[in-house]
Amino acid sequence: MSAILPGATIGILGGGQLGRMTAMAARSLGYRVQVLDPDRSCPASFVVDSCFTAAYNDVNAAAHLARGSDVVTLEIEQIAIASLEEAARYAPVRPDAAVLNIVQDRIRQKNWLQTSGFPIGEWEPATSALELSSAVEQFHRDCFIKSTSGGYDGRSQIRVQPTNANSAEETWKVLGSRPCVVERALPLDSEISVLVARRPGGEASVYPPALNHHENQILDWSAIPAPASNELHKIASDLALQIAQQLQVVGLLVIEMFVLKDGKLLVNELAPRPHNSYHASERACVTSQFEQAVRSICDLPLGDPSVVKPAAISNLLGDVWLGSKPPAFDLALAIPGVRLHLYEKSVPRPGRKMGHLSAIGNTVEQAVARVLEARDALAR
Ligand SMILES: Nc1ncnc2c1ncn2[C@@H]1O[C@H](COP(=O)(O)OP(=O)(O)OP(=O)(O)O)[C@@H](O)[C@H]1O
Ligand SMILES: [Mg+2]
C-alpha cells in the first residue's frame, strides 16, 4: 500500500459543511478536490476544483467522480451502496461499502454492535405499526423512536413520553411507514464522543473525548477535552479503538456515547466521517479532524491528536438569521479567543446548520462560556 501524496486528487461524496471543511484541509496540504452533491451551491462547491451535481444514488456520477480521483471518501452516510461499489472499480473508497452498509441502517448497526459485544441501550426493531406498539409498551411509553435510515439532527425521530401518547398507527405513519428502532429512554448524565482515525494498514489514532450538549436532539455546543475522569477517558478510548478495529474502517470513525447517571458507558451510534462534535479539534488539537481525515484516507502518517488548548464550538442554526436584525458578528468576534465559521448556505431555515462559532480558553469551562457568550452577542 502506498501513500497518496499531495498533488493527487481526492473525491468526496457529499458536499455539505463536513465535505467543505475536509476540502479546505486537503487544499492546505496541496491536494486537488472534487465533490459530488445534489445541490449545485453546496457548501463545498465554493472551495473545490470541481463539483458534480448528482444524486447520492447516481452510480454513473459516482463512477465519473472516482475516475478522476486517486481516492474517494464521503461526508454523509446516505450515499447509496451501489454508488460506493461502482466508485470502488476506479479508486480506493475509504471508508468502503461494507462499513457503510452496517452504519447506514440503525437496525443493522445495532445488531452489529450487539453481536460484536459492544455495550448499547435496550432497543427493539419495529417493522410494522403492531411491532411499534408492542415495543413502545415494553418501554412503558418512555422511549425514542427512530427511522432506520435517513435521519440526522434528531429528524425522523420521535420522543415518546407517558404524557404524549399518540397511537402507534399515527406514529408509524408520521415516520413514513418505514422500519424503525425503539430505544428505551436512558437516564443520561452526559454525552461524549470519541474520534478514531485509521489507516489502510490498521494503524489507528484516538482523540480525547468531546463533551456534547444537545438541545431538542440537535447538537448545541461541544467541547474538547470532555471534563471527565482519566478512568472514563481510558474506557471510552479503548472502546472506540476496539470498535474501529472490529469494523476495519479506513478514515475517520466517531462513536457517540451516553454516560449514564450510574457511570455506565453505552454506545449511541457510529459515524464513519468527520463529525460536528469534533469541529473544536481545529482549535483544540495539534491535528484537526479534517486534516486527520485526509491523512488517514491518503495513508499518510497520522497527526498528533493531543490537546494544545481547550476549545469549544456552538452551532449556528438558521434561526439566528430569522430575527428582526442580522446577526451581530462584529460583537461576537470581539470576545477573546472566538472565531467564526460559516458554511455559505444561502437559505437559512430553522434547525438548519449554517455555521458555528469556536473559542479557546484556559479551561474547557472558559471555552464553553466564551463561545456561548459569543452566540448570545449575535442577537444584540
Ligand atoms: N435512548 C435515548 N435515551 C436518551 N436520550 C437519547 C436517546 N436517543 C437519543 N437521545 C438524545 O437525542 C440525541 C440525538 O439522537 P441520535 O444521535 O440517535 O440522533 P441523530 O438524528 O442521529 O442525531 P445526530 O445527527 O445529531 O447524531 C442524542 O444525542 C440524545 O441527546
Ligand atoms: Mg447522534
Task: Describe the structure in your own words.
The chain is 29% helix and 27% strand. The chain is of the alpha+beta class and 380 residues long. Strands 9, 10, 11, 12, 13, 14, 15, 16 and 17 form a nine-stranded antiparallel sheet that branches. A hairpin with a 4-residue loop joins strand 13 (251-260) and strand 14 (265-271). The protein starts with 8 loop residues before the first strand and ends with a helix. Magnesium ion (MG) binds next to strand 14. Adenosine-5'-triphosphate is lined by residues 121, 144, 146, 151-154, 157, 183, 185-186, 188, 191, 214, 217, 219, 256, 268-269.
Which spans of ≥5 residues are poorly predicted at pLDDT below 50? none
Percent of residues in helices: 25-40%
Overall pLDDT score:
96
Amino-to-carboxy terminus distance: 54 Å
Number of DSSP helical runs = 12
Q: What would you call the shape?
A: globular
Structural class by helix and strand composition: alpha+beta
Please compute the radius of gyration using only Cα atoms. 20 Å
Q: How many beta-strand elements?
A: 17
Characterize the biggest β-sheet.
9 strands, antiparallel
Output the helix-strand order: EHEEHEHHHEHEEHEEEEEHEEHHEHEEH
Strand content: 25-35%
Q: Any ligands, ions or cofactors bound here, and which?
A: adenosine-5'-triphosphate, magnesium ion
Tags for this model:
globular; binds adenosine-5'-triphosphate; alpha+beta; 380 residues; 17 strands; 12 helices; 9-stranded antiparallel β-sheet; binds magnesium ion
